[in-house]
Amino acid sequence: MERRGAGAQHFEGYNLSDPVLVREDGRPLYTLSSVVDDLELSVTHVLRGEDHVANTAVQIQLLEALGGSPPIFAHLPLLTDAEGQGLSKRLGSMSLADLREDGLEPMALNSYLARLGTPDPVDARQELGGLVPGFDISRFGRATPRFDPSELKSLNGRILHDMPYAAVSGWLQAQGLHDFTEDLWLAVRGNLEKREDALLWYRICRAQITPVIEEKEYVATARELLPPVPWDLSTWSVWTEALKDKTGRKGKALFMPLRLALTGQGRDRKCVSCCR
Predict the structure, then answer these.
(1) For residues 211 and 262, is the Cβ–Cβ distance under 8 A?
(2) Average confidence score pLDDT of the chain
(3) I want to staple 235 with a disulfide (CB 3.0 to 4.6 A). Which of 25, 90, 210, 231 is the partner?
(4) What is the DSSP letter of 211?
C-alpha cells in the first residue's frame, strides 16, 4: 500500500506476478538494485513518476523480505512537452545534457521544476535554499504538467538579471576575461538570456566595434547632446530625455539608431539597456 494525494492505493500481493530480478548473465535489474540502494543509503522518502506505481508494490515486498522498512513513496504525473506529447529519451527529447549545452542555468531548471505542476507562480531563485520555504508537496496536482522550453528560457534570463557578480566571476575568469569587473557585470546582466551573452557585451564595451549608422543627422544630433564626462548611472536617461525633447522621437525611433551606433548589433538582437 502507498499513500497518495487522493488517499491510499492498494495492491493485492497474490495478484502480482513474480518479478524478474536478475538477468540471465547475472546482472541485477532495476527493481532489485533500487531496493538495495534504498536500504544501503537509509532512504526515507522516494518521489518519482507515476509510471513506477506498479513497481512500488513489488519493491515494498522486497524491502520487507530483506529486513528493511519501506520508505514513504510519492508519485507525480509525468511531464509532457508544450504540445502535450510525452517526454522520452527514446524520442530524443531534451535531457540535462541538452539543457546544459543550450546554456541553461541549473537554478533556472530547479526553480521551474519546484513549481511546475502546482498552482503557484514560478519564482526565480539564485540558490536551492531559496526554494525550500515555498516548497510543499501537497501543492502538486494530478493534472499532467507541460514542460515549456520558452518559459524555462524566460526564467533563465530572470535568473541572470539578478545574479550577483560573485556567482559568475569565476566563470568569467575562466573565459580569460580578467578585466570583466563587477560594474560591467551589473551594467550588462539585464541584457542576458544566456550566460554566454556576457561575452558579446564584453566585446561591445571593451573592444573595438563597427558602429551601424543608418540616420547620420539624428546620430549627429545625439552626439551634440551627449552629456560631458564623467558619466554615471543617470547619464543614459538624461541623454535620451534631452534627445527626445529635441527631436520629438520616442520608442524605437528614439532608441534603435542609438543602439546600432553604440553596439554595432543588428535589429534582430534583443537589447534591454545599453552599456554605461
Answers:
(1) yes
(2) 87
(3) 231
(4) -
C-alpha cell at 248: 520629438
Q: How many helices (H) and strands (E) does the chain have?
A: 11, 6
Q: What is the pTM of this model?
A: 0.74
- β-pairing, 45-49 with 7-9? unpaired
Q: How many CA atoms lie within 13 A of 42 on its CB side?
A: 0
Predicted confidence (pLDDT) per residue in 106-148, tens digit:
999 999 999 999 999 999 999 999 999 988 888 888 888 888 8
Grid cell listed for 160? 541572470
**DSSP 8-state secondary structure symbol assigned to residue 52:** G
Q: Which three cell numbers stand for residue 98?
A: 541538452
**143, three cell numbers:** 493534472
Q: In b/e form, how buried is each residue of 46-84, taking b as 16+ CB within 10 angstroms?
A: beeeeeeeebbbbbbbbbeeeebebbebbbbeebbbeee
| Residue with the three cell numbers 538495495 | 36
What is residue 3's predicted lDDT score, i.e. its pLDDT? Answer: 43
| Bridge partners of residue 184, in order along the sequence | none
Residue length of the chain: 276
